Protein 1
Amino acid sequence: MLTGCAPATPTAAVVGALALLLGACTAGSGAEGADPASHEYRPGLSAHPHVPADVTSAPVVVMVPGGSWRSAEPAGLEPLAEAFADRGVFAMPVVIRAAQDDVVHPTPVEDVLCALADGAATARDEGIEPERLVLLGHSSGAHLSALAALAVDDYAPRCEDPLVVPDAVVGLAGPYDIRRFADAASVLFEDGADRDQWDAANPVLRAGERPEVPFLLLHGDLDDVVPPSFSTQFGAALRAGGHAATVQVLPREDHGSIYSAEAAAEPVAQWLDGLDGPASDEG
């Protein structure tokens, strides 16, 4: 597991230099050959389901990797997905497109929504009815997951499965205010993108939308890549917007360890157990 991906507190001057390091943070050696077999949910984009045993209903958690909006390799999320399945959660890390694929916003968010649609359909194919449709993201993947849940009505992707509405979000060390992470986040946009485009893709500015969606935000107190203040600020904005938002700053965790099974599996599973109500209707 990679930890301590960058040595310095990010400022506008150094965030650009950290961008590639952020891409490495979520990458890692993970399990291969998930059951059922990995598959494409969109052409060229893979999903890796981990199915809990002996359940007929479960939360469906689609897991979106970080990569500073430049890449999105989910291998490092596999141990956490396995730990979720052991706890009765259907978990599915996915590949989404990023700047290295010559795409910009809204394409990465559309991929996230198609992955969630595939997660719901795959769970049902396995005889599991979704209890909740949850997006979990790390770093830039947390930003994209939050945006997909809050601003879902802005997007109309063409997916291979019926669209569904995300109804809960777990964010791990997310840069939710992209104004504060502008050097790295600039790759999310075409050159010359205006303020309105940036604001539309900024979760902290959209925290008042879809207040029925609960959020769990986890952050490590040793994170020197994306400081914990990003989560505490976003949590406050969400609560002001009417959301149920839980923020946990975990001791002795950093940007690379926050998505480990040891750090995240139990608090996320406990939070999911505490959520009431059925999954959202398909949209």
Protein 2
Amino acid sequence: MPSVLPLDPPRRLVRALGSRPDSSLTSGWLTGLPALLERVLEHWELAPERVVSPGGRGSLVVLVRRPDGSPAVLKLAAPPASAAVAEAAALAHWNGWGAVRLLRTLPAEGALLLEQLHGEVSLRSLPDAKAMLEAASAARRLWVTPPAEHPFRTVAEHTSVETDTLRAHAPAEAHALVDEALELRETLVGDAAEALLLHGDFRQGAVLAADSERAPWLAVGPEPLVGERAYDLARLVRDRLHDLMASAGAPAATRRRINKLAEALDVDPDRLRGWTLYRAAASGTRHLASGNREDGEALLEFASWL
């Protein structure tokens, strides 16, 4: 079966993997990607249609046809393998409720076969107010009790590995902000009252249009964790950040967004504010560490509004 992989993988994927601390590992994965794609296509007897571009930042996504002619999406996740295992486990547990349906998986290859949604139509295609309403509805479906035996890290475990990056890469003028973010994290993980299955990277762009009786919008690309809902909502608060920064009264608009989301989903607004500040500061310092100064500084400015 001929490969559909272009001469070069999608640029977004190459850039994202090249900026990761484990880039030596992912560069080897990129080199072997054509052969990996061939193996999985042959194993599942899939007919490739096209590689999705710009695609994702941590996986190759290919539109395919199954042996019966039905459409599907093949996702090949970059290392570590544990990320694909966790994603597959979360999708299997949701079983199509609020999220894309998992059809098959090959954990050793980091391969997931998914139902095909409208990948070109996310909630970002809607006006922001409508997108936020739909996002709230989609998120509510995902927050369920995790299975008794699961591979998911907790929010406390996940965020504990970020503290060194926060301290090492925050610019001098942001040290007070980073100190506040770290103090907030300690408080929030210390008294969290919920242990629900979270999407982990929930945002408007991760919710796609679906031709489904289950729901008109379904989440994709989870980085699942177990923790409280406020952590999951915190990434959504800063959606369309550059548009927000260009508008008048952005800090006040951000605080209103926090209050609206907290009220709509019965989440403590103070906890949502705290996780929003922490996650923006953590993401900002990661961008600075990878050389992306523009986005890093924008995220730290956003965090300072809170």
Protein 3
Amino acid sequence: MDLSVMFFGADDASTVGHATKYDDILAITRAADRLGFTAVWTPERHFQQVGQVFPNPALLSAALAVATERIHVRAGSLVLPLHHPLRVAEDWAVVDNLSRGRAGISVATGWHSKDFVLAPDAFEDRRERALRDIGLLRRLWAGETVEFTDGTGERVAVASQPRPYSAALPLWTTTSGSPQTWEAAGRLRTNILGATIGQTREDLAGKIRLYRDAYAQAPEQAGAPSRGIVTLMAHTYVGVTDEEARRRAGGPLKEYLKSYVAQTATNKAPAKTGGESAGRAAGGAAGRAAGDAAGALTGGQLDTLAEFAFQRYLSWGSLLGSAETCRKSLADLADLGCDEVACFVDFGLGAEEVLAGLERLAELREDL
């Protein structure tokens, strides 16, 4: 099993400055590179406290690419309906060249209505746009000439430049839990980026089987691997003991969950649309438990909800505990059919605590 590092911070950077947050991200990524982690994932978020330093994963990934030597740099996730596919191909070709072939993207449909001030016409059919444009993105990456409408209304044929370093772009589809998205990812032969949180082990096992069956039955896709990668996000802090890990992680994680629930109250997207992103997956049980009533919750109710979610995280699906506890959790995820765990580390812990936890986690890699 591969281990990666995922960022999706919720803390208010105004107290220390956003420049310091970027320094922390660089330091943690360099450490992950040195320690042998597979990849670093950075999200796309707009106009919220949650993920406030991550408006453009391509821009940040370019910086991480030149600051590292071997670790893969990936968008987890890129909200494809907010972008023209040509621009995505151009931007990530730059990252791919700077990293000498270490770029990758997880495509998300988007879920928060406020994000779509950047592309208001793309909101209603965002799921269809995202799934449709995956094929187009593959064609552009491969160097095909594709017709688009130019500034005069004429159809013109263009090819994306610069040419990428890699022949194929590794693609994931992000899901917050919808079985339809797991199946769609299999049909498209993309990898899949999900989360342990917010679903039972049995539910997740069923979705992985659904994905594997759909992938096996799907026709070959240009640039797609013969077998898809199942990557699962998990809140991570490896402590010296279970008690120490939970004591250090408990307060920051519960504050993170409350911040996440608060942003759901400002989302005008109807729940039935099923838009998905790394944010929803990372928020997990707390966000879904709050639902449409998030805006009406009192402070005490938010505390109760966050405590409930935290206790659920401890019972299954997180990497919060001692090395031995986390070793057992990783073995369980491997048995479930998980190929890679994206370790979600920046939920409020200090950079030094994150780095210490990664050092202990890296020691477990030899057993995987």
